[in-house]
Amino acid sequence: MSEALSTLAAAGGTALVGAAATDVWHTARTGFAHVLGRGEAGLEETERGRLDRIAQDVEQTPEARRDDVRRRLEQRWTGRLETLLEEHPEAAEELRALVDDISSRLPQVTHTWVQNNVAGAGGVQHITQRGDINVGGAIR
Description:
The protein is mainly α and 140 residues long.
């Protein structure tokens, strides 16, 4: 399998599982059932059942453990999508379009890091940082 298809499968697994338990789930479930079922009604119904278990797993897991469950599900579904693309490479464009659509609808993830640096007694610190840096705030 090419690196591009492996990357697409990983993006698909991430988008699919990321959509679970969100407002985007119905769109993701319908789209992935169609891609995985290759347009065959019986297979699509089977895939919808499998996909429903993703949302159930995420929703029923306590918040503190959801990231672990999502990672496990992402790995499982990335593997399923790799198999699909190996057997049906023509599905790549449809999967790519679906992943782009789902990804654009998901909330953007933001991270915040806090770094405290203290230099005393004439100490000098050399610090390199990138991104938005907000300096100030209340002294604690």
